[in-house]
């Protein structure tokens, strides 16, 4: 596997490196936002659900637009550079927020940056590698992405331990954001021909039937996959200190970084749908455990580490399976639909989770997420299972 890993094209490694640097900035702040929201801006789970849900929903349409235009023009780089530029500018401005609606505005800008770059980046990555190594390539991308997600929280924890206020920690995100923008300028196009004859088609029925079924399954899972910030809020509720919350997320990202490459490569051999089904069921088990068995100490750290296994088994594999199912000239559009579904469904997912938590209990909220994941796993291996000649 190591020989195949180091034989991957330059563009695959560069896209992964950019994600590493970007996530070191993003994840340095990500675990701190719910803490800042509750302890400084004095808002609770409902506000958190609205912020995360609206931020994703507002940006969701752009995820499809950028993917379609990347297909039509054959150019992904301008969208990627613009996306990283917008996000790199928005994140440090969180240091100057004094009310939660302004935090919502900056989160929307950050998510717009992600929306603009996500589908073209994934399409460029898929075009850079053959189908037999697609799981390995997307696994490497997720491994480097999650490595950045380890570095970021560790930096945040170190700064907090040194007595740096939350607002000033946000300012540190400016440096990796600028480095990420410079690296993205060195990307090269895949050489795929443009498709000017293909009109911008927003119709769902324009996608292949099997791809539509797969996207619906992903949508059901995403309905239960609310913002990870609720996990941080749950950890704080269980008595974890503010300085330790970033360490929990660093543990998740470290496990995901270590396992993304071997599990992504495994999907090239045993089938992506099988591995994805196991990942969805693992997610359901994790959320049930967070509802009923979590407590401060080693058990909570073990649960968060198990969540890293779920991420490694699903994040890259979801995208690799989509690339398998999408025609080559529709990959940008297909990734646009995937990201559109992620963004659009996260609004009700986060809002429902927040209302269930405050209106009933944390157990109801986490149980709802587990039920959605279980349903998605069952549908993936029956109704939406890839047909003959495609990865099962």
Provide a brief overview of the structure.
The protein has helices spanning 2-6, 10-29, 33-39, 45-73, 77-90, 100-127, 134-161, 166-171, 174-184, 209-224, 229-237, 245-270, 272-292, 298-325, 331-359, 362-380. It is mainly α and 392 residues long.
Top keywords for this entry?
single chain, 392 residues, mainly alpha, Growth Hormone, Chain: A, transmembrane, transmembrane helix
Explain what you see.
Helix 2 packs parallel to helix 7, helix 10 packs parallel to helix 15 and helix 13 packs antiparallel against helix 14. It is built from 16 helices and no strands. The longest helix has 29 residues. It is mostly helical. It has one domain: Up-down Bundle (Growth Hormone, Chain: A), CATH 1.20.1250. It is globular. 76% of the residues lie in helices and 0% in strands.
């Amino acid at each position: 596997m190591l020989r195949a890993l180091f034989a991957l094209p330059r563009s695959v490694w560069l896209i992964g490196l950019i994600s590493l640097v970007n996530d070191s900035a993003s994840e340095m702040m990500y675990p701190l936002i719910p803490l800042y929201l509750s302890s400084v801006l004095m808002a609770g789970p409902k506000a958190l659900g609205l912020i995360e849900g609206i931020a994703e929903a507002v940006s969701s349409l752009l995820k499809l637009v950028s993917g379609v235009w990347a297909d039509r023009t054959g150019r992904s780089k301008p969208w990627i550079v613009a996306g990283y530029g917008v996000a790199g500018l928005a994140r440090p401005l969180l240091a100057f927020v004094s009310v939660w609606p302004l935090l919502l505005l900056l989160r929307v800008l950050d998510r717009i940056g992600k929306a603009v770059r996500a589908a073209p980046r994934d399409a460029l990555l898929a075009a850079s590698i053959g189908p037999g190594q697609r799981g390995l390539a997307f696994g490497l991308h997720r491994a480097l992405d999650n490595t950045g997600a380890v570095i970021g929280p560790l930096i945040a924890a170190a700064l907090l331990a040194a007595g740096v206020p939350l607002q000033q920690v946000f300012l540190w995100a400016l440096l990796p954001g600028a480095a990420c923008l410079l690296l993205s300028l060195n990307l090269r196009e895949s050489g795929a021909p443009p498709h000017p004859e293909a009109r911008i088609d927003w119709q769902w029925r324009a996608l292949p039937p099997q791809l539509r079924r797969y996207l619906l399954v992903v949508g059901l899972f995403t309905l239960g996959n609310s913002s990870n910030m609720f996990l941080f809020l749950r950890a704080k509720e269980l008595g974890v200190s503010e300085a330790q919350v970033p360490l929990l997320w660093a543990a998740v990202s470290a496990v995901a970084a270590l396992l993304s490459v071997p599990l992504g490569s495994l999907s090239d051999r045993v089938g992506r749908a099988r591995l994805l089904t196991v990942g969805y069921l693992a997610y359901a088990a994790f959320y049930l455990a967070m509802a009923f068995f979590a407590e401060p100490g080693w058990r909570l750290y073990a649960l968060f580490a198990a969540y890293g296994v779920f991420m490694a088994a699903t994040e890259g594999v979801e995208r690799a399976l989509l690339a398998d199912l999408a025609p080559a000239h529709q990959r940008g559009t297909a990734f646009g639909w995937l990201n559109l579904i992620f963004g659009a469904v996260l609004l009700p997912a986060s809002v429902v989770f927040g209302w269930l938590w405050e209106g009933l209990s944390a157990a109801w909220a986490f149980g709802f997420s587990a039920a959605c994941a279980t349903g998605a796993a069952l549908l993936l291996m029956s109704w939406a299972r890839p047909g003959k000649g495609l990865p099962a």
